[in-house]
Amino acid sequence: MWTKFWAGLALAERTLMVCLMLALPCLYGFNVILYNLAPGLARHFDGIEELSRFLLVWLVCVSLGYTMDKGRHVSMNLLQRFIGPALLLWIQRVLDLVGALFCAYVAVLGWRFLQRIIDTGQVSNMLDVSMGWLYAALPLGMALLTLRYLRYVLFPAQRPVADDHPD
């Protein structure tokens, strides 16, 4: 059951990240072409730059958990070479627990901030949509990262091994 859950979550994150990564250059390319070929029409599409910023924030936040699941987060592994495997396992579990608590705390703070933004009715200048759409990315991303940390606390064997060298 858990294997299907994690695979489904990774597939959903990956699909969303691919869509966002494809949308960003398409939007920017359309914007550049429009400004160069039809400057008169370009003023009707001023929201593209703001939409691109929204999408970039969402891309970064959604990719947090997926990146950790693939073992691609930045890590300092110098001391790992001098610590025995048993001690290293417990140190990693403590760090994962601290990471889960911190990310859960940031997710709660992000949720409270999102509620405040929605309550005040703030809207973006160019797109005329609620700024809640922008600020919703933080609690979602931190919740996804919290799930990954909890997974590694409960099932340390599922923790990915960080690469010593890039691909």
What features would you describe in this structure?
By secondary structure, this protein is mostly helical. Helix content is 72%, strand content 0%. The protein starts with a helix and ends in a 13-residue tail after the last helix. The mean pLDDT is 89. It is a multi-pass membrane protein. The chain crosses the membrane at residues 15-38, 50-68, 88-111, 132-150. Part of the tripartite ATP-independent periplasmic (TRAP) transport system.
Outline of the structure:
This protein has 167 residues and is mostly helical. It has helices spanning 2-37, 39-42, 47-69, 85-120, 132-135, 137-154.
Question: What is the topology?
Answer:
Blueprint lengths: L1 H36 L1 H4 L4 H23 L15 H36 L11 H4 L1 H18 L13
| Helix percent band | over 70%
Supply the number of helical segments.
Answer: 6
What best-fitting shape do the alpha-carbon axes yield?
elongated
* Sheet with the most strands, sense and barrel status: none
Question: What is the typical, i.e. mean, pLDDT?
Answer: 89
SSE sequence, one letter per element: HHHHHH
SS content category? mainly alpha
Q: List low-confidence stretches.
A: none
What is the CA-atom radius of gyration, in angstroms? 20 Å
> How far apart lie the N and C ends?
32 Å
* Strand percent estimate: under 5%
Number of strands: 0
